[in-house]
Fold:
Amino acid sequence: MPVRSFREIKHDYRFTDEDEQRLAGLKTVMDDHADMVMSTLSLWIMGTKGAAQFFTDETRQKHVFEAQRRWFLELFSGVYDNSFYEKLIKIGRVHVKFNVDAHYMNRAMNIVKNSCIDVLQRTEEVKEEYTNKIISLGKLLDISLDVITTAYIDEELKTYSPAYKVKSALIAFAERFSQSMNLVLVLALIGLTIGVVWLFVIDVGKLINGDLERGIIGALGSLLLLWVIIELMNTEISHLKGGKFHISVFIGVALVTTIRETMIATLKHEKAEMIYYLVAAILVIGVVYWLVVRTEDRTR
Ligand code: HEM
Structure:
């Protein structure tokens, strides 16, 4: 079974920015009615033999019902990123671990959906808005259930297919490895940013010491570098949040460093060929940058 990214899942459900905003707009109403929705769910759980058997222990009951409430309130935070996805995966795994039948999860989600529709019916007067809100919420709850049930499917596959077991262990290892590499990347970027700020300070120092031309051009060059590094960090942050990877940022880095090199070369009165070479490089990278940004904008 292919590993799906959260971005892909959201796209499959056509879960758009509009859906996100609509759900965030429901926050106050749902906060006010959370007690009602959650008590409907807990009443069903406690009134259903197979489900209630998990909650003979009162502390566990309290703990899980509170966790369900937190999960419910987060549905309307308006942020549906990788951390939201990971929480769902975790919820799936916990229930598989405790042998909670998938059937109960389906029904629990169904209850949450019905209760929310009931709340909307009471609070939303415009018919079109009412329908739109139900659709957005329906998508999010279905996505959540979809992710949660994946844990069950994974478990079943693991039991029946040893090859899948190996594959999933491999994927888990690769994921952990890539996460630690992301950490290395972020730390390296922070280190580089500090380095560039230092470079900027040195350039400003030259400026103060009276070397006006060198100081200004140098400082401008290091500011350009700082700007791309910030851009790189933003790319990494949005990548970690589950966003799309933009290759244009890296071409931007090449472009900016070449521009900086040219500025410095002009200052040092380098040979004319050297400057021609740098200008040609800027032209080529510039065209590539423009082409890539155009395709990225089109696929966004
Ligand atoms: C919308 C449906 C549900 C959601 C969102 C949900 C959410 C959660 C969460 C977040 C936890 C982890 C708590 C922690 O941080 O340790 C959890 C644990 C658990 N849930 Fe659910 N749950 C749902 C439905 C159910 C149902 C229907 C049952 C039983 C039939 C159930 C039984 C359990 C059990 C046994 C645990 C483990 C408790 C422990 O750690 O001791 N859940 N649930």
